[in-house]
Automatic annotation (TrEMBL), chain A:
One of its GO terms (biological process) is transmembrane transport. Keywords: Cell membrane, Membrane, Transmembrane, Transmembrane helix, Transport. Residues 82-271 form the ABC transmembrane type-1 domain. Gene3D superfamilies: MetI-like. It comes from the Bacteria. Pfam families: BPD_transp_1 (PF00528), OppC_N (PF12911). One of its GO terms (cellular component) is plasma membrane. The chain crosses the membrane at residues 21-43, 84-110, 117-139, 145-163, 199-229, 249-271. It comes from Micromonospora marina. This is Peptide/nickel transport system permease protein. Belongs to the binding-protein-dependent transport system permease family. It is found in: Cell membrane. Its main location: membrane.
UniProtKB/TrEMBL annotation, chain B:
Gene3D superfamilies: MetI-like. Keywords: Cell membrane, Membrane, Transmembrane, Transmembrane helix, Transport. GO terms for cellular component: plasma membrane. It is a multi-pass membrane protein. GO terms for biological process: transmembrane transport. Pfam families: BPD_transp_1, BPD_transp_1_N. The keyword Transferase does not apply. This is Peptide/nickel transport system permease protein. InterPro entries: BPD_transp_1_N, MetI-like, MetI-like_sf. It comes from Micromonospora marina. Belongs to the binding-protein-dependent transport system permease family. Coiled coil: none annotated. It is found in: Cell membrane. The chain crosses the membrane at residues 101-122, 134-161, 181-200, 235-261, 281-304.
């Protein structure tokens, strides 16, 4: 098993190295992680340093991304907000991955009534447009970083459950699984040691693509005032606050939006490249949602 | 075919009941008393008691749900905590605005995606194909509200061609409606077009490699005839599904765009309900959108089964 995993890892790395778009996406992601970790130290000014004499100043040497309606440095806020986006993306996709894989494993492995009940629950969640359900959940639980992460995690759970279940249904019929059953291995051991490693490829691809969608969803929730609360900076919220000034102060619209776009693009490029290597037949998250009845 | 339709209708009905349960439970998730939270500083005991009783919150949970389901089946979604108006009337009043935006966006998306997707597939590897792939990647990565802000900046701010926001009903003044819908529809439509382009391209590419296409070419049919008669006819069947589901998702998925452009549709209503903590209106809007989403999915499945009879066998 370890030799196979190692060779798959090498194959993926070699394929990613050959794809210039994937290399570009990986570099952007690496830079983002650095900015996410070191953002507060890289920022040239404090994110909440209000300066009424410097309100709505265009980009300059002192403020490369200009200043906002309170005179705060936009570059500093964009840099520090990277952490929020990455954090929400990682935690919400982590929630969706753990919940979805668990439910998909149980449904696919035990089948029967448990499968029917769990998958009908997933169908119910699929019946809601993603952002609408996330908005509704955050609205009732109260806006904030934690609730945004939980809401996004919940709405992306069904896609992981479906992918896992489909994989389990095919793997559980394989000879090595039947052999494990015949020697008396426990269900938990079979799922952990034999099923999960063999359905990992589509899950890795889906995780990468879901990170892009989770960051977009977080930006949308922040834009609606349902993400992290002011004065903490978030890219979506910066766009919302700046939308009234955008015809006079273009930099308030351009830079936070460009940061979201670059981040999502990087995750999509890496996700697409991973899909081409690991699971060429898998649809993107958007395609899967839209083409699934 | 009849059995397939019946099975899909039953499945959809079961999911719809599940949807009503989720929507009902949303109100139960509100920390504290939802009526007290909604009334806030406007609290007075008489209004409070009346709203609690009207919402059935003094009943046990299963009774509340049975009552909610029963009323929902007759179109009664309760009353707004804010205005006291029936929720179904409030939500239906906003439907035309959302519908006009969603349909315009999808029409725009089709006008872009069909030629681009088909040419990209037929001339695979060409400059058009590369442009189509860049466009697809751009569309799935760009936040639609950012594109909207850039649109406002360019077309309303710099060029002054279009209003930055606002709404005029199509029935009141078609000309002014067109100028107001243009920016939000193009913003939403470009994202939809990028998804459709990718799908149409891969669908046409798949059919192009089919045996019957090779046979048609071997018979000496002209390229144009092969594409129009054999390739497109078969390639566009799965695209029907994607187009319809895109339309359905736009009916409830354009909250941010409706907020940005002050478009008084269901998305804007949802946002206002969240701000005002008007939970019955929020529930009503979410339920209507999910029900529409299910209905469109059901109709698409039936249409798809008619276009491709192999589906019913599967």
């Amino acid at each position: 098993m370890s030799a196979t995993t190692e060779s798959t890892g090498r194959r993926v790395l070699a394929a990613l190295r050959r794809d210039p778009l994937a290399v570009g996406g990986t570099i952007v992601l690496a830079l983002l992680v650095v900015v996410g970790v070191a953002g507060p130290w890289l920022a040239p000014a404090g994110v909440n340093d209000v300066d009424v004499d410097q309100m709505l100043r265009p980009p300059s040497g002192a403020h490369p991304f200009g200043t906002d309606e309170l005179g705060r440095d936009v570059l500093s806020r964009v840099l520090v907000a990277a952490r929020v986006s990455l954090q929400v993306g990682a935690v919400s996709v982590g929630i969706a991955l753990v919940a979805g894989v668990t439910l998909g494993l149980l449904a696919g492995y035990y089948r029967g009534w448990l499968d029917s009940v769990l998958m009908r629950c997933m169908d119910v969640l699929f019946a809601f447009p993603v952002l609408l359900l996330a908005v509704a959940i955050v609205a009732v639980l109260g806006p904030g970083l934690l609730t945004a992460m939980v809401a996004i995690g919940v709405v992306y759970t069904p896609i992981f459950a479906r992918i896992t279940r489909a994989g389990v249904l095919s793997v559980r019929e394989q000879v090595f699984v039947r052999a494990a059953v015949s020697i008396g291995a426990s269900d938990l051991r079979i799922m952990r040691r034999h099923v999960l490693p063999n359905i990992a490829a589509p899950l890795i691809v889906q995780t990468s693509l879901s990170l892009a969608f989770a960051i977009l969803s977080e930006a949308a929730l922040s834009f609606l005032g349902l993400g992290i609360q002011p004065p903490a900076p978030a890219w979506g919220r910066m766009l919302f606050d700046g939308r009234g000034f955008v015809t006079d102060a273009w930099w308030l619209g351009v830079f936070p939006g460009a940061a979201i776009f670059l981040t999502v693009l990087a995750f999509n490029l890496v996700g697409d490249a991973l899909r081409d290597v690991l699971d060429p037949r898998q649809l993107t998250l958007g395609e899967a949602r839209r083409s699934t009845p | 075919m009849a059995r397939f339709v019946l099975r899909r209708v039953l499945q959809s009905a079961v999911v719809l009941v599940g949807v009503t349960l989720v929507v009902f439970l949303l109100l139960q998730l509100v920390p504290g008393d939802p009526v007290r939270v909604a009334l806030g500083t406007r609290f007075d005991p008489q209004t409070y008691d009346a709203l609690r009783e009207r919402a059935g919150l003094d009943q046990p949970l299963p009774v509340q749900y049975a009552s909610y389901l029963g009323h929902a089946l007759t179109g009664d979604l309760g009353v707004s905590f804010r205005t006291g108006q029936p929720v179904s009337a409030i939500v239906l009043e906003r439907l035309p605005a959302t519908l006009s935006l969603a349909v315009t966006a999808v029409v725009f998306a089709l006008l872009v995606a069909f030629p681009l997707g088909i040419v990209a597939a037929v001339r695979s590897g060409s400059a058009v194909d590369h442009a189509a792939r860049v466009f697809s990647q751009f569309g799935v990565s760009v936040p639609d509200f950012w594109m909207g802000i850039m649109g406002i900046l360019l077309f309303a701010g710099v060029l002054g061609w279009l209003p930055p926001s606002g709404y005029v009903a199509l029935t009141d003044d078609p000309g002014r409606w067109a100028t107001h819908v243009a920016l939000p529809a193009v913003t939403v439509g470009l994202v939809t077009a990028s998804i459709l382009t990718r799908f149409i391209r891969s669908s046409v590419l798949e059919v192009l490699s089919a045996d019957y296409v090779r046979t048609a070419e071997a018979k000496g049919l002209r390229n144009r005839v092969v594409i129009l008669r054999h390739v497109l006819r078969n390639a566009l069947i799965p695209v029907v599904t994607v187009v319809a589901v895109q339309l359905a998702s736009l009916l409830g998925g354009v909250i941010v765009i409706e907020v940005l452009f002050a478009w008084p549709g269901i998305g804007r209503l949802t946002f206002d309900a969240v701000q005002a903590r008007d939970y019955p209106v929020l529930q009503g809007a979410v339920l209507l959108v999910a029900a529409l989403f299910l209905l469109v999915n059901l109709l698409v499945d039936i249409l798809y089964a008619r276009l491709d009879p192999r589906i019913t066998v599967k």
